[in-house]
């Protein structure tokens, strides 16, 4: 359905990392959020995602108390962030926690993400969908029926596009639990929708998990983004270098994946003619002789009659002399 214009479409999940980095550096939350957004744009990320009003799930790990709702960014802050994203050419996505988040920020939002915690919250899904904007639906810990019910709720209210995101409700996700083959299952079960992946695994130096997800068919990809993976709780985030590596990987994949349907390629044309074999006279064959199987053999190049057409040759009568080693052609047969 092409929910976005560019693929692979890479989303940086900014929350809740900017809180951690801001508190670590004793910097204003909004300033650090904007810094992460700028860094995301600079390394070719396409969109940013913020969880709004979700302080109870913040991953901050400090000796002092965790963040309280009063510490969160205000709606006015998110309005500024929206404008900043527009200025930088980034898609601004929010994962809302309640109805007020949706109603107060809808004017400033490009797309919504429905968290897996709200996958079965049908009334809330209907409300978000009524805003008629693209929706990214997290399917972590979901059954196929639950996904179908959520899609029905969205489509009852909106005809905007939907992306279904495979993810695993485990932070960080172990490699054994990533289950990337579920991406292919989603693609088969929901062929009319874009399929994506939210990656919560600890990134390796080659970005193998996110790259494999893309190669398995995930065209919308999301991962937490940080400037410091050594910060506690940021170990499953990607940084700028990880993004560069991922983009390089996908460029290579785009080249080597090529066409899906098996067929001869232009680059094979010369070799196809010269490496394959043709039917060749094994002896001097006189005009008027009937060709027997013992009279022919198969040799390169493949510019004559193919061995697959042997039944069109054996039993035919020659209408002129054929020299030993010559390629047979239909013009000398009757």
Chart the SSEs and their pairings.
Layout (H helix, E strand, L loop, with lengths): L8 E5 L3 H9 L3 H14 L4 E5 L23 H14 L2 E5 L3 H7 L5 E4 L7 H8 L5 E4 L5 H14 L4 E5 L14 H9 L4 E6 L8 H8 L4 E5 L15 H18 L11 H7 L2 E4 L14 E4 L35
Helix pairs in contact: 1-2, 2-3, 5-6, 8-9
Characterization of this structure:
The protein is built from 10 helices and 10 strands. It is α/β, with parallel strands linked by helices and 334 residues long. It folds into 2 domains: 249 residues, TIM Barrel, CATH 3.20.20; 67 residues, Type Iii Antifreeze Protein Isoform Hplc 12. α5 links the parallel β4 and β5.
Short note summarizing the structure:
With 334 residues, this protein is an alpha/beta fold.
What is the arithmetic mean of pLDDT? 93
Which structural class best describes the helix and strand composition? alpha/beta
CATH-derived topology of the largest domain:
TIM Barrel
The rough form would be described as elongated
Low-confidence stretches: 56-65
Distance from first to last alpha carbon? 57 Å
Order of helices and strands: EHHEHEHEHEHEHEHEHHEE
Q: At CATH's second level, what is the architecture of the largest domain?
A: Alpha-Beta Barrel
- Radius of gyration from the alpha-carbon trace, in angstroms: 30 Å
How many structural domains does the protein architecture include? 2
Number of helices: 10
Fourth-level CATH superfamily of the largest domain: Aldolase class I
CATH class of the largest domain: Alpha Beta
Helix content class: 25-40%
Summarize the main sheet: 8 strands, parallel, barrel
């Amino acid at each position: 359905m092409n929910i976005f214009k560019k693929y692979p479409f890479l989303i940086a999940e900014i929350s809740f990392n900017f809180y951690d980095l801001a508190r670590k550096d004793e910097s204003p939350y909004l300033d650090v959020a904007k810094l992460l957004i700028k860094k995301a744009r600079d390394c070719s990320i396409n969109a940013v995602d913020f969880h709004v009003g979700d302080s109870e799930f913040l991953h901050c790990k400090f000796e002092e108390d965790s963040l309280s709702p009063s510490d969160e960014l205000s709606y006015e802050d998110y309005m500024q962030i929206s404008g900043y994203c527009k200025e930088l050419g980034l898609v601004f996505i929010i994962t809302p926690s309640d109805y007020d988040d949706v109603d107060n920020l809808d004017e400033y939002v490009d797309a919504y993400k429905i968290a897996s915690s709200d996958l079965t919250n049908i009334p809330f899904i209907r409300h978000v969908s009524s805003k008629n904007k693209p929706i990214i639906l997290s399917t972590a810990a979901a059954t196929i029926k639950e996904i179908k019910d959520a899609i029905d709720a969205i489509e009852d209210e909106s005809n905007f596009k939907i992306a279904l995101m495979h993810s695993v409700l485990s932070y960080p996700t172990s490699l054994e639990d990533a289950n990337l083959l579920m991406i292919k299952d989603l693609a088969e079960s929901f062929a009319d929708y874009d399929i994506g992946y939210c990656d919560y695994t600890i990134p390796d130096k080659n970005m193998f998990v996110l790259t494999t997800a893309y190669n398995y068919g995930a065209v919308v990809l999301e991962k937490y983004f940080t400037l410091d993976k050594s910060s506690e709780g940021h170990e499953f985030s990607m940084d700028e270098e990880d993004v560069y590596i991922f983009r390089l990987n996908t460029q290579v994949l785009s080249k080597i994946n090529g066409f899906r349907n098996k067929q001869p390629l232009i680059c094979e044309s010369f070799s196809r003619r010269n490496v394959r074999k043709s039917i060749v006279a094994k002896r001097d064959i006189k005009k008027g002789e009937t060709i027997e199987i013992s009279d022919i053999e198969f040799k390169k190049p493949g510019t004559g009659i193919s061995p697959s057409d042997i039944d069109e040759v054996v039993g035919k009568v020659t209408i002129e002399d054929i020299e030993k080693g010559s390629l047979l052609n239909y013009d000398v047969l009757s």
